[in-house]
Q: What sequence folds into this?
């Protein structure tokens, strides 16, 4: 991660905190969701709510039978 993007602070051997800023909640949400990692948003409250709103909006699309095919089990 480029230092101009944000700062990673280790928590333990399996997790860290990302401290980043932006003028756009969408930009921050897209940034963290496109890294392919599990994450939690702790603050600011506006970003927590924005990520929840995006998840709710995308959830029906992910469950749609017309979405990408699921691998066989």
A:
């Amino acid at each position: 991660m480029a230092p101009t993007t944000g700062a990673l602070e280790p928590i333990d051997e399996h997790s860290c905190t990302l401290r980043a800023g932006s003028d756009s909640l969408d930009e921050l949400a897209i940034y963290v969701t496109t890294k392919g990692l599990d994450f939690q948003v702790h603050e600011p409250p506006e970003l927590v709510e924005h990520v929840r709103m995006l998840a709710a909006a995308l959830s029906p699309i992910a469950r749609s039978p017309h979405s990408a095919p699921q691998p066989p089990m």
